[in-house]
Automatic annotation (TrEMBL):
The keyword ATP-binding applies. PANTHER family: TUBULIN POLYGLUTAMYLASE, TUBULIN POLYGLUTAMYLASE TTLL11. This is Tubulin tyrosine ligase-like family, member 11. Residues 13-27, 74-87 have a biased composition (Basic and acidic residues).
Amino acid sequence: MSDHYVKVSIQLEEMKSFGEDAEKEGVDTEEQVPVCSPSASVSPPDPSSTTIAGRDASNTSITCKHRGKSRSKLGKDDKNSCGKHTSDVSLHGSVVSAHVGRNLNRLTHDRTLHVKGTGKILQGKSETNGNNVTVHPSKNIQETRREDGFKHARKGRPVTVDISKAKTSLEALKLSIKQLKWKEFPLGRRAACDIYWHGVSFHDNDNIVSGQVNKFPGMIEMLRKINLSRAVRTMQELFPEEYDFYPRSWILPEECQQFSTQIRMVKENDATINPTFIVKPDGGSQGDGIYLIRDPSDLKLMVGTQAKQAVVQEYIQRPLLIDKLKFDIRLYVLLKSLEPLEIYIAKEGLTRFCTEPYQEPSQKNLSHVFMHLTNYSLNVHSGNFVHSDSQSTGSKRTLSSVLYRLAAKGVDIKKVWSDIIALVIKTAIAVVPELRVYYQCDIPPGKPGPTCFQILGFDILLTKNLKPVLLEVNSNPSMRIEHEQEVAPGVFEYVPSPVDEEVKVGVIRDTLRLMDPGHKKPSISQHGEEIPMEAETQERSPDEGALPSLCLKQVYPKYTKQFNYLRLVERIASLFIRFLGVKGNMRMGPTAFRTFIRTCKLSNSNFSMASVDILYIDITRRWSGTMPDSREAGMGLQAFVEAFFYLAGRRFKSLVLREQVVSLLQLCEAQLESQSGVEERRSVSCSRAMPRAVRTLGLTNPQLNSPAPLRRASSQDYRLSR
Ligand code: ADP
């Protein structure tokens, strides 16, 4: 076993405090199964044909407590205010020791699954579609920064990595750096490093002005359950069929009434329907605070005098079972860059199994956490948890072993895998717009700053019909390669977990390889399109000779043609960022909103500037009410998107929402383009002596260079209603 493993006895309390932040973000959730290596090669074939089937539901309430507490059946909830129920009845108990100590040192490489797809027959909308505007990866600030990094890249010196903030990913990171023969700086470094590895957030270390950081600003906020649900919902409004992989969700407390009314109506219409819902606290992780209900009156809306921020979601009643057990998939995804959008998926992942045979939800079993929740952190405390040393048995297995097993049963694994890829790309497209706003706020163009990348943990459930459903995305997936073992009451020891080491070190090492500042960067064609480079074919640095082929597979821009038409909100975000005004801002003030309306010529006699102001005040007020912790006043991106939809609806009344939005985007982009042309001509005639670089800095935003012709809507109605 690798020499880095030193068994350290750690008191549970120490352990908790060490990982406090990380734990909140789900860092320390799972891991340990002595499963096997990521030997499977499951390549993405045809991601497009995703059709996620109907979902089910049923009811009761489960309350899960912290790790270290035993969980089993949970009590039923008491009544409280809005929902007439109160009090969390939760299980407290003694720490249950982990079942470890099997043959952890042996990695089994016995099975290899080769399901190779061509990846070339993806369906989807072509770029010639009028709705389809390529967000060209023209050179932008992030790219220029990265290029600067390349220029200063090592010449013969090893890549330097600041690991002083790595927290729970430290061991896996150190192993990766060792394999790459790079240089680590455990205490940080006075001079700049090439790469900074943060354990929690972009802000773990605030004084970075160059290099690359493994976290994006705003990722934690963006992936909290409420924000993710909002972002996906916006996409569902525009593309309901494409975004049917996310269960229907309501945001609490603000949509409590709506939720109750809708469910009542559904039940009144068809008495045989008896759905179940899962309630998840906004900032929760590891199953903490989650419970199931079958009736809206069972919602627990208050914590003391405070309203609980949570998401209530349709419960998937018929998941795919293996050995009669429910399981979910943890997939590692690298967001390599926002602009241009670059996404990689790890070919190997983990599957986490429940420890009590699954039954469809009923009033009786709603509180059985070991039946309904797949979290490792919960199930490890069940007496049935199996720490197996085989990749294909036990309570945590490799993804490849599960796919292998399904393939053996005749399941079309290529289809499942391509559906998973589609889900990942679509989810990324949903969250990227807001991430771009965070990015420009923390790293404003023109100011020195690092570039960013991030490994995300996608939690995916397969339905009985083999459709992948997104449960959540973790901004800090656990990168621990040890798991805890109770050696004496209350005293825990970390022991190595070979499977975790194999999967996670692979993901970190290959992420570093892709972020190597000396790495050849993707080429840009004459037409401004990126020529996607397969990870495997990218130039290797001399040090890489002995390394295995990359376990990360590029899926974007590789599948740009199939998914680019979905990037409408990103174009709205480009407008938003452009008119934000003061750099470092995340919210648009009323003057900037007016400027946007004027510049894009969206007001007229039927929609006066007074109406514009009313629209601004109305939407901004409503959104500020939904975000109690918002510090800045003004209109955030989500509110701006709502205003944009409203304006699009008024202007292009006869169209469906998606076409309305496309039409308004084209209108705005064309206005801006024509104005930037005027600006350009003006600046050429007025200032011949002015350097070209200064002239072109004006209004042209590369993201808005859509060649889309100004499309005249058949109906241009300016009445105030939608
Ligand atoms: P947490 O961040 O607390 O782990 P998750 O959203 O991952 O919250 O949910 C915890 C577990 O609950 C999941 O691993 C899964 O087993 C189960 N679960 C979550 N959402 C659903 C759903 N909509 N339908 C069925 N099971 C779900």
